[in-house]
Protein backbone atom coordinates (compact mmCIF):
# COMPACT_ATOMS: atom_id res chain seq x y z
CA UNK A 1 0.00 0.00 0.00
CA UNK A 2 0.98 3.62 -0.51
CA UNK A 3 0.72 5.45 2.82
CA UNK A 4 0.69 9.24 2.79
CA UNK A 5 1.52 10.70 6.20
CA UNK A 6 0.42 14.33 6.54
CA UNK A 7 1.18 16.89 9.24
CA UNK A 8 -1.10 19.97 9.33
CA UNK A 9 0.06 23.55 9.38
CA UNK A 10 0.45 25.22 12.78
CA UNK A 11 -0.84 28.78 13.23
CA UNK A 12 1.58 31.65 13.67
CA UNK A 13 2.09 32.12 17.40
CA UNK A 14 5.00 32.73 19.74
CA UNK A 15 5.60 28.98 19.54
CA UNK A 16 5.95 28.86 15.75
CA UNK A 17 9.18 30.95 15.67
CA UNK A 18 8.25 31.71 12.06
CA UNK A 19 9.89 35.12 11.78
CA UNK A 20 13.10 33.95 13.41
CA UNK A 21 13.21 30.87 11.20
CA UNK A 22 12.81 32.96 8.07
CA UNK A 23 16.04 34.78 8.91
CA UNK A 24 17.75 31.38 9.12
CA UNK A 25 16.30 30.14 5.85
CA UNK A 26 14.34 27.44 7.71
CA UNK A 27 10.67 26.52 7.29
CA UNK A 28 9.80 25.01 10.69
CA UNK A 29 11.32 24.55 14.12
CA UNK A 30 10.93 20.78 14.43
CA UNK A 31 9.87 17.82 12.27
CA UNK A 32 6.73 15.74 13.05
CA UNK A 33 8.37 13.13 15.26
CA UNK A 34 5.09 11.32 15.92
CA UNK A 35 4.45 10.64 12.22
CA UNK A 36 8.09 9.64 11.69
CA UNK A 37 7.63 7.07 14.47
CA UNK A 38 4.30 5.86 13.05
CA UNK A 39 5.99 5.41 9.67
CA UNK A 40 8.57 3.12 11.29
CA UNK A 41 5.71 1.05 12.78
CA UNK A 42 3.95 0.54 9.44
CA UNK A 43 4.62 -2.68 7.48
CA UNK A 44 7.99 -2.67 5.75
CA UNK A 45 6.58 -3.45 2.27
CA UNK A 46 4.39 -0.33 2.34
CA UNK A 47 5.53 2.70 0.38
CA UNK A 48 5.60 5.79 2.60
CA UNK A 49 5.62 9.49 1.88
CA UNK A 50 5.53 12.22 4.56
CA UNK A 51 4.28 15.74 3.85
CA UNK A 52 4.76 18.34 6.56
CA UNK A 53 2.60 21.21 5.33
CA UNK A 54 4.65 23.60 7.47
CA UNK A 55 7.56 23.13 5.06
CA UNK A 56 5.98 22.03 1.75
CA UNK A 57 2.67 21.98 -0.08
CA UNK A 58 0.37 18.98 -0.12
CA UNK A 59 -0.11 18.42 -3.84
CA UNK A 60 -2.91 16.72 -5.72
CA UNK A 61 -0.29 14.33 -7.08
CA UNK A 62 0.48 13.21 -3.50
CA UNK A 63 -3.19 12.44 -2.92
CA UNK A 64 -3.47 10.61 -6.24
CA UNK A 65 -0.45 8.45 -5.32
CA UNK A 66 -1.81 7.37 -1.93
CA UNK A 67 -4.06 4.48 -0.93
CA UNK A 68 -4.56 5.90 2.56
CA UNK A 69 -3.75 9.19 4.30
CA UNK A 70 -2.60 9.08 7.92
CA UNK A 71 -2.94 12.53 9.50
CA UNK A 72 -1.73 13.48 12.96
CA UNK A 73 -1.94 16.75 14.83
CA UNK A 74 -2.50 18.70 18.01
CA UNK A 75 -5.58 20.61 19.13
CA UNK A 76 -4.13 23.90 17.88
CA UNK A 77 -3.89 22.45 14.35
CA UNK A 78 -7.54 21.40 14.10
CA UNK A 79 -8.58 23.91 11.43
CA UNK A 80 -5.92 22.83 8.95
CA UNK A 81 -6.25 19.16 9.91
CA UNK A 82 -9.99 19.10 9.16
CA UNK A 83 -9.35 20.91 5.88
CA UNK A 84 -6.87 18.21 4.87
CA UNK A 85 -9.33 15.46 5.83
CA UNK A 86 -12.03 17.07 3.71
CA UNK A 87 -9.66 17.43 0.78
CA UNK A 88 -8.71 13.74 0.99
CA UNK A 89 -12.29 12.55 1.29
CA UNK A 90 -13.38 14.68 -1.66
CA UNK A 91 -10.99 12.58 -3.76
CA UNK A 92 -12.21 9.31 -2.26
CA UNK A 93 -8.97 8.79 -0.31
CA UNK A 94 -9.38 6.93 2.99
CA UNK A 95 -8.31 8.94 6.02
CA UNK A 96 -6.94 7.95 9.41
CA UNK A 97 -6.53 10.64 12.08
CA UNK A 98 -4.46 10.19 15.23
CA UNK A 99 -2.28 12.19 17.59
CA UNK A 100 -3.17 14.25 20.68
CA UNK A 101 -6.10 15.92 18.90
CA UNK A 102 -8.15 12.72 18.99
CA UNK A 103 -8.07 12.77 22.79
CA UNK A 104 -9.64 16.24 22.91
CA UNK A 105 -12.16 16.33 20.05
CA UNK A 106 -15.02 13.94 19.21
CA UNK A 107 -14.49 11.66 16.20
CA UNK A 108 -17.50 13.27 14.50
CA UNK A 109 -15.75 16.66 14.48
CA UNK A 110 -12.65 15.22 12.86
CA UNK A 111 -14.67 13.80 9.93
CA UNK A 112 -12.14 11.02 9.23
CA UNK A 113 -12.94 7.48 8.08
CA UNK A 114 -10.89 6.05 10.94
CA UNK A 115 -9.83 7.62 14.24
CA UNK A 116 -7.02 6.37 16.49
CA UNK A 117 -7.10 7.38 20.17
CA UNK A 118 -4.02 6.80 22.28
CA UNK A 119 -0.41 5.88 21.62
CA UNK A 120 0.34 4.04 18.41
CA UNK A 121 2.85 1.31 19.31
CA UNK A 122 0.27 -1.38 20.10
CA UNK A 123 -2.33 -0.25 17.55
CA UNK A 124 -0.61 0.20 14.22
CA UNK A 125 -0.09 -3.45 13.29
CA UNK A 126 -3.80 -4.27 13.66
CA UNK A 127 -4.87 -1.08 11.90
CA UNK A 128 -2.52 -1.83 8.99
CA UNK A 129 -3.87 -5.38 8.59
CA UNK A 130 -7.44 -4.09 8.59
CA UNK A 131 -6.64 -1.39 6.04
CA UNK A 132 -5.09 -3.95 3.72
CA UNK A 133 -8.13 -6.22 4.10
CA UNK A 134 -10.60 -3.36 3.69
CA UNK A 135 -12.13 -4.07 7.11
CA UNK A 136 -10.78 -1.14 9.13
CA UNK A 137 -13.08 0.02 11.93
CA UNK A 138 -14.16 3.64 12.50
CA UNK A 139 -12.45 3.76 15.91
CA UNK A 140 -9.26 2.28 17.37
CA UNK A 141 -8.45 3.02 21.00
CA UNK A 142 -5.40 1.91 22.96
CA UNK A 143 -6.29 -0.46 25.79
CA UNK A 144 -3.27 0.64 27.82
CA UNK A 145 -0.23 2.88 27.61
CA UNK A 146 2.62 0.96 25.95
CA UNK A 147 6.12 0.53 27.32
CA UNK A 148 8.56 2.90 25.63
CA UNK A 149 10.78 -0.03 24.67
CA UNK A 150 8.22 -0.72 21.94
CA UNK A 151 8.91 2.60 20.23
CA UNK A 152 11.13 2.20 17.14
CA UNK A 153 13.71 4.52 15.66
CA UNK A 154 11.84 7.27 13.80
CA UNK A 155 12.14 7.15 10.00
CA UNK A 156 14.46 10.06 9.18
CA UNK A 157 14.43 9.25 5.47
CA UNK A 158 10.97 10.78 5.12
CA UNK A 159 11.91 14.35 6.08
CA UNK A 160 14.06 17.08 4.57
CA UNK A 161 16.30 17.76 7.55
CA UNK A 162 17.74 21.00 6.18
CA UNK A 163 14.33 22.68 6.38
CA UNK A 164 14.22 22.44 10.20
CA UNK A 165 16.19 24.32 12.84
CA UNK A 166 16.05 21.52 15.43
CA UNK A 167 15.83 17.74 15.42
CA UNK A 168 13.85 15.88 18.06
CA UNK A 169 14.24 12.85 20.31
CA UNK A 170 11.71 11.47 22.77
CA UNK A 171 12.96 9.77 25.93
CA UNK A 172 9.88 9.60 28.14
CA UNK A 173 6.11 10.08 28.26
CA UNK A 174 4.01 11.19 31.22
CA UNK A 175 4.49 13.53 34.18
CA UNK A 176 4.18 12.77 37.92
CA UNK A 177 2.44 16.06 38.78
CA UNK A 178 -1.24 16.94 38.72
CA UNK A 179 -1.73 20.44 37.26
CA UNK A 180 -5.45 21.08 36.79
CA UNK A 181 -5.14 22.66 33.34
CA UNK A 182 -2.76 20.08 31.85
CA UNK A 183 -3.87 17.52 29.25
CA UNK A 184 -0.52 15.69 29.21
CA UNK A 185 -1.29 13.72 32.37
CA UNK A 186 -4.70 12.80 30.93
CA UNK A 187 -3.23 11.48 27.66
CA UNK A 188 0.08 9.99 28.81
CA UNK A 189 -0.47 9.38 32.50
CA UNK A 190 1.23 10.39 35.72
CA UNK A 191 3.70 7.50 35.80
CA UNK A 192 6.63 8.49 33.58
CA UNK A 193 7.63 5.78 31.12
CA UNK A 194 11.14 5.91 29.68
CA UNK A 195 13.15 4.44 26.87
CA UNK A 196 16.25 2.42 27.61
CA UNK A 197 19.51 4.34 27.47
CA UNK A 198 20.59 2.27 24.44
CA UNK A 199 17.46 3.36 22.54
CA UNK A 200 18.21 7.04 23.03
CA UNK A 201 21.86 6.63 22.07
CA UNK A 202 20.77 4.77 18.93
CA UNK A 203 18.61 7.76 17.98
CA UNK A 204 21.53 10.12 18.54
CA UNK A 205 23.72 7.85 16.40
CA UNK A 206 21.10 7.94 13.66
CA UNK A 207 20.99 11.74 13.67
CA UNK A 208 24.78 12.03 13.65
CA UNK A 209 25.14 9.52 10.83
CA UNK A 210 22.52 11.44 8.84
CA UNK A 211 24.80 14.47 9.04
CA UNK A 212 22.97 16.55 11.65
CA UNK A 213 25.22 18.90 13.62
CA UNK A 214 22.90 21.32 15.35
CA UNK A 215 20.26 21.61 18.06
CA UNK A 216 18.37 18.57 19.38
CA UNK A 217 15.23 18.98 21.47
CA UNK A 218 14.31 16.19 23.89
CA UNK A 219 10.54 16.54 23.57
CA UNK A 220 9.55 14.96 26.89
CA UNK A 221 6.84 16.83 28.75
CA UNK A 222 8.95 16.44 31.89
CA UNK A 223 12.45 15.10 31.26
CA UNK A 224 13.08 14.71 35.01
CA UNK A 225 9.79 12.95 35.81
CA UNK A 226 11.92 9.96 36.84
CA UNK A 227 15.12 11.49 38.19
CA UNK A 228 17.20 8.33 38.74
CA UNK A 229 16.64 7.18 35.15
CA UNK A 230 17.27 10.70 33.83
CA UNK A 231 20.61 10.75 35.63
CA UNK A 232 21.63 7.41 34.13
CA UNK A 233 20.76 8.67 30.66
CA UNK A 234 22.59 11.96 31.15
CA UNK A 235 25.76 10.19 32.23
CA UNK A 236 25.59 8.04 29.09
CA UNK A 237 24.89 11.09 26.90
CA UNK A 238 27.90 12.90 28.32
CA UNK A 239 30.11 9.91 27.53
CA UNK A 240 28.57 9.62 24.04
CA UNK A 241 29.13 13.31 23.37
CA UNK A 242 32.76 13.11 24.46
CA UNK A 243 33.34 10.15 22.14
CA UNK A 244 31.77 11.90 19.13
CA UNK A 245 33.03 15.45 19.51
CA UNK A 246 29.83 16.89 21.01
CA UNK A 247 27.88 17.23 17.74
CA UNK A 248 24.64 18.45 19.36
CA UNK A 249 23.34 21.12 21.73
CA UNK A 250 20.41 19.80 23.75
CA UNK A 251 17.24 21.41 25.08
CA UNK A 252 14.26 19.91 26.88
CA UNK A 253 11.22 20.52 29.11
CA UNK A 254 11.23 19.91 32.85
CA UNK A 255 9.71 21.10 36.12
CA UNK A 256 11.03 23.77 38.47
CA UNK A 257 12.08 21.22 41.08
CA UNK A 258 15.06 20.64 38.79
CA UNK A 259 16.70 23.38 40.86
CA UNK A 260 16.60 21.12 43.94
CA UNK A 261 19.02 18.57 42.49
CA UNK A 262 22.48 19.97 41.86
CA UNK A 263 23.83 16.59 40.77
CA UNK A 264 21.18 16.44 38.07
CA UNK A 265 22.00 19.97 36.92
CA UNK A 266 25.70 19.15 36.68
CA UNK A 267 24.92 16.04 34.65
CA UNK A 268 22.75 18.07 32.26
CA UNK A 269 25.57 20.55 31.80
CA UNK A 270 28.09 17.77 31.11
CA UNK A 271 25.70 16.12 28.64
CA UNK A 272 25.45 19.33 26.60
CA UNK A 273 22.09 20.78 27.66
CA UNK A 274 21.97 24.52 27.06
CA UNK A 275 18.30 25.31 27.73
CA UNK A 276 15.22 24.01 29.52
CA UNK A 277 11.58 25.04 29.27
CA UNK A 278 9.79 25.28 32.63
CA UNK A 279 6.10 25.72 33.34
CA UNK A 280 6.33 28.59 35.84
CA UNK A 281 2.76 29.83 35.16
CA UNK A 282 2.41 32.66 37.67
CA UNK A 283 4.20 34.44 40.54
CA UNK A 284 0.99 34.16 42.61
CA UNK A 285 1.20 31.25 45.06
CA UNK A 286 -2.57 31.19 45.63
CA UNK A 287 -3.03 30.50 41.91
CA UNK A 288 -0.39 27.77 41.97
CA UNK A 289 -2.11 26.03 44.87
CA UNK A 290 -5.58 26.38 43.33
CA UNK A 291 -4.33 24.79 40.10
CA UNK A 292 -2.44 21.98 41.87
CA UNK A 293 0.93 23.32 40.66
CA UNK A 294 2.39 22.42 44.03
CA UNK A 295 5.91 21.73 42.71
CA UNK A 296 6.30 25.51 42.23
CA UNK A 297 5.15 26.42 45.75
CA UNK A 298 7.04 26.61 49.02
CA UNK A 299 10.07 27.99 47.22
CA UNK A 300 11.46 31.28 45.96
CA UNK A 301 10.94 30.75 42.24
CA UNK A 302 13.38 33.49 41.21
CA UNK A 303 16.11 31.83 43.28
CA UNK A 304 15.31 28.43 41.75
CA UNK A 305 15.56 29.88 38.25
CA UNK A 306 18.86 31.51 39.17
CA UNK A 307 20.29 28.19 40.39
CA UNK A 308 19.54 26.55 37.03
CA UNK A 309 21.07 29.48 35.14
CA UNK A 310 24.26 29.20 37.18
CA UNK A 311 24.89 25.87 35.43
CA UNK A 312 24.95 27.58 32.03
CA UNK A 313 21.43 26.45 31.20
CA UNK A 314 19.01 29.01 29.77
CA UNK A 315 15.56 28.92 31.34
CA UNK A 316 12.63 29.40 28.98
CA UNK A 317 9.40 30.03 30.85
CA UNK A 318 5.73 29.30 30.30
CA UNK A 319 3.27 31.71 31.98
CA UNK A 320 -0.54 31.78 32.13
CA UNK A 321 -3.07 34.54 32.73
CA UNK A 322 -6.75 33.94 33.44
CA UNK A 323 -6.76 31.81 36.59
CA UNK A 324 -9.80 32.22 38.84
CA UNK A 325 -7.53 33.55 41.58
CA UNK A 326 -5.88 36.25 39.44
CA UNK A 327 -6.25 39.72 40.94
CA UNK A 328 -5.96 43.16 39.33
CA UNK A 329 -2.27 43.38 40.23
CA UNK A 330 -1.34 40.14 38.47
CA UNK A 331 -0.30 41.89 35.25
CA UNK A 332 2.29 44.18 36.82
CA UNK A 333 3.50 41.40 39.10
CA UNK A 334 4.04 39.13 36.11
CA UNK A 335 5.97 41.77 34.16
CA UNK A 336 8.18 42.43 37.19
CA UNK A 337 8.78 38.71 37.74
CA UNK A 338 9.73 38.07 34.10
CA UNK A 339 12.10 41.05 33.98
CA UNK A 340 13.83 40.00 37.21
CA UNK A 341 14.06 36.35 36.18
CA UNK A 342 16.42 36.91 33.22
CA UNK A 343 14.15 34.70 31.09
CA UNK A 344 14.37 36.08 27.54
CA UNK A 345 11.95 33.51 26.08
CA UNK A 346 8.88 34.12 28.21
CA UNK A 347 5.84 32.43 26.66
CA UNK A 348 2.80 34.16 28.16
CA UNK A 349 -0.59 32.75 27.17
CA UNK A 350 -4.21 32.98 28.18
CA UNK A 351 -5.59 30.05 30.12
CA UNK A 352 -7.27 27.48 27.86
CA UNK A 353 -9.68 24.93 29.29
CA UNK A 354 -8.64 21.99 27.15
CA UNK A 355 -11.21 19.21 26.67
CA UNK A 356 -10.38 16.18 28.77
CA UNK A 357 -8.63 18.11 31.54
CA UNK A 358 -9.65 18.49 35.16
CA UNK A 359 -10.09 22.20 34.48
CA UNK A 360 -12.52 21.62 31.60
CA UNK A 361 -14.58 19.20 33.70
CA UNK A 362 -14.75 21.66 36.61
CA UNK A 363 -15.71 24.63 34.48
CA UNK A 364 -18.27 22.52 32.60
CA UNK A 365 -19.90 21.58 35.91
CA UNK A 366 -20.00 25.29 36.79
CA UNK A 367 -21.61 26.19 33.45
CA UNK A 368 -18.64 28.31 32.37
CA UNK A 369 -17.44 26.50 29.22
CA UNK A 370 -18.17 28.40 25.99
CA UNK A 371 -16.64 26.00 23.46
CA UNK A 372 -13.90 23.40 23.02
CA UNK A 373 -11.36 26.11 22.20
CA UNK A 374 -8.84 26.25 19.44
CA UNK A 375 -5.78 25.34 21.49
CA UNK A 376 -4.08 28.65 20.66
CA UNK A 377 -3.45 30.46 23.93
CA UNK A 378 -2.14 33.63 22.27
CA UNK A 379 -5.10 34.62 20.05
CA UNK A 380 -6.98 36.73 22.65
CA UNK A 381 -9.94 34.35 22.63
CA UNK A 382 -11.24 32.62 25.75
CA UNK A 383 -13.21 29.37 25.66
CA UNK A 384 -14.61 29.84 29.16
CA UNK A 385 -16.09 32.57 31.35
CA UNK A 386 -13.30 33.93 33.59
CA UNK A 387 -13.78 35.28 37.10
CA UNK A 388 -12.07 38.52 36.15
CA UNK A 389 -13.90 40.81 33.75
CA UNK A 390 -13.08 39.34 30.33
CA UNK A 391 -12.25 42.65 28.65
CA UNK A 392 -9.96 43.61 31.55
CA UNK A 393 -8.23 40.23 31.31
CA UNK A 394 -7.61 40.56 27.58
CA UNK A 395 -6.40 44.14 27.91
CA UNK A 396 -4.09 43.13 30.76
CA UNK A 397 -2.75 40.24 28.71
CA UNK A 398 -1.85 42.56 25.85
CA UNK A 399 -0.29 44.97 28.31
CA UNK A 400 2.02 42.25 29.63
CA UNK A 401 3.10 41.22 26.13
CA UNK A 402 3.83 44.74 24.94
CA UNK A 403 5.85 45.41 28.09
CA UNK A 404 8.01 42.29 28.10
CA UNK A 405 8.65 42.28 24.35
CA UNK A 406 9.36 45.97 23.98
CA UNK A 407 12.86 45.94 22.51
CA UNK A 408 14.63 47.63 25.41
CA UNK A 409 12.95 45.38 27.98
CA UNK A 410 13.73 42.25 25.97
CA UNK A 411 17.39 43.15 25.47
CA UNK A 412 17.73 43.98 29.16
CA UNK A 413 16.54 40.44 30.00
CA UNK A 414 18.95 38.95 27.48
CA UNK A 415 21.88 40.89 28.96
CA UNK A 416 20.89 39.84 32.48
CA UNK A 417 20.72 36.24 31.27
CA UNK A 418 24.16 36.48 29.63
CA UNK A 419 25.69 37.91 32.81
CA UNK A 420 24.18 35.19 35.01
CA UNK A 421 24.43 32.19 32.73
CA UNK A 422 27.53 32.97 30.65
CA UNK A 423 26.66 30.36 27.99
CA UNK A 424 29.86 29.15 26.38
CA UNK A 425 28.63 26.82 23.64
CA UNK A 426 30.64 27.19 20.47
CA UNK A 427 28.73 28.68 17.55
CA UNK A 428 29.11 26.54 14.45
CA UNK A 429 29.13 29.09 11.67
CA UNK A 430 27.11 27.09 9.18
CA UNK A 431 25.38 28.61 6.17
CA UNK A 432 22.19 28.89 8.22
CA UNK A 433 23.81 30.70 11.16
CA UNK A 434 25.71 33.08 8.86
CA UNK A 435 22.51 33.80 6.96
CA UNK A 436 20.68 34.47 10.22
CA UNK A 437 23.47 36.80 11.38
CA UNK A 438 23.46 38.98 8.27
CA UNK A 439 19.67 38.82 7.86
CA UNK A 440 19.31 39.99 11.45
CA UNK A 441 21.55 42.99 10.83
CA UNK A 442 19.48 43.92 7.76
CA UNK A 443 15.97 43.30 9.15
CA UNK A 444 16.59 44.45 12.71
CA UNK A 445 19.60 46.74 12.40
CA UNK A 446 18.75 48.60 9.18
CA UNK A 447 15.02 48.15 8.59
CA UNK A 448 13.72 47.57 12.12
CA UNK A 449 11.84 50.18 14.13
CA UNK A 450 14.15 49.69 17.12
CA UNK A 451 17.47 50.02 15.29
CA UNK A 452 19.20 51.98 18.03
CA UNK A 453 18.29 49.42 20.72
CA UNK A 454 19.49 46.61 18.45
CA UNK A 455 22.92 48.11 17.75
CA UNK A 456 23.44 49.05 21.40
CA UNK A 457 22.67 45.45 22.36
CA UNK A 458 24.95 44.04 19.65
CA UNK A 459 27.82 46.28 20.75
CA UNK A 460 27.36 45.22 24.38
CA UNK A 461 27.25 41.54 23.41
CA UNK A 462 30.39 41.85 21.27
CA UNK A 463 32.41 43.64 23.95
CA UNK A 464 31.08 42.56 27.34
CA UNK A 465 29.87 39.03 26.50
CA UNK A 466 32.24 37.96 23.72
CA UNK A 467 32.32 34.36 24.90
CA UNK A 468 28.54 34.21 24.62
CA UNK A 469 28.14 36.13 21.37
CA UNK A 470 26.59 33.15 19.58
CA UNK A 471 23.90 32.84 22.23
CA UNK A 472 23.33 36.60 22.15
CA UNK A 473 22.77 36.58 18.37
CA UNK A 474 20.43 33.60 18.60
CA UNK A 475 18.31 35.46 21.15
CA UNK A 476 18.40 38.66 19.09
CA UNK A 477 16.98 36.74 16.13
CA UNK A 478 14.32 35.16 18.34
CA UNK A 479 13.45 38.62 19.62
CA UNK A 480 12.56 39.61 16.05
CA UNK A 481 9.89 36.89 16.04
CA UNK A 482 8.49 37.78 19.45
CA UNK A 483 8.31 41.47 18.63
CA UNK A 484 6.59 40.79 15.28
CA UNK A 485 3.94 38.54 16.87
CA UNK A 486 3.40 41.03 19.71
CA UNK A 487 2.91 43.84 17.20
CA UNK A 488 0.28 41.76 15.39
CA UNK A 489 -1.55 40.95 18.62
CA UNK A 490 -1.55 44.55 19.74
CA UNK A 491 -3.34 45.56 16.53
CA UNK A 492 -5.90 42.72 16.49
CA UNK A 493 -9.45 43.34 17.65
CA UNK A 494 -10.33 42.06 21.10
CA UNK A 495 -12.89 39.25 20.97
CA UNK A 496 -15.76 39.86 23.34
CA UNK A 497 -16.74 37.04 25.67
CA UNK A 498 -20.45 36.82 26.34
CA UNK A 499 -22.37 34.55 28.67
Describe the structure.
42% of the residues lie in helices and 14% in strands. By secondary structure, it is of the alpha/beta class. The strands form three sheets. A six-stranded parallel beta sheet has the order 2-1-3-4-5-6, with helices on both faces. The protein has a six-stranded parallel beta sheet with strand order 7-10-11-12-13-14. Helix 1 packs across helix 19 (469-491). It is globular and about 65 Å long. The mean pLDDT is 95.
Kindly list the characteristics that best describe this protein.
globular, 6-stranded parallel sheet, alpha/beta, 14 strands, 14% strand, 499 residues
Overall structural class, as computed from helix and strand content, comes to alpha/beta
What is the typical, i.e. mean, pLDDT? 95
Sequence of strands across the biggest β-sheet: 2-1-3-4-5-6
- Number of distinct helices: 19
Strand content: 5-15%
Give the N-terminus to C-terminus distance in angstroms.
Answer: 50 Å
The rough form would be described as globular
Oligomerization category of the chains in this entry? single chain
Helix content: 40-55%
Helix/strand layout:
Blueprint: E1 2-7, H1 18-24, H2 33-41, E2 47-52, H3 60-65, E3 68-72, H4 78-90, E4 94-98, H5 107-110, E5 114-117, H6 124-133, E6 139-141, E7 166-169, E8 172-173, H7 184-188, E9 193-194, H8 197-209, E10 215-218, H9 227-243, E11 249-254, H10 262-271, E12 273-281, H11 285-290, H12 301-309, E13 314-321, H13 330-341, E14 346-350, H14 358-365, H15 390-404, H16 407-421, H17 431-446, H18 451-464, H19 469-491
Parallel strand pairs: 1-2, 1-3, 3-4, 4-5, 5-6, 7-10, 10-11, 11-12, 12-13, 13-14
Antiparallel strand pairs: 8-9
Helix pairs in contact: 1-17, 1-19, 9-10, 13-15, 13-16, 16-18, 16-19, 17-19, 18-19
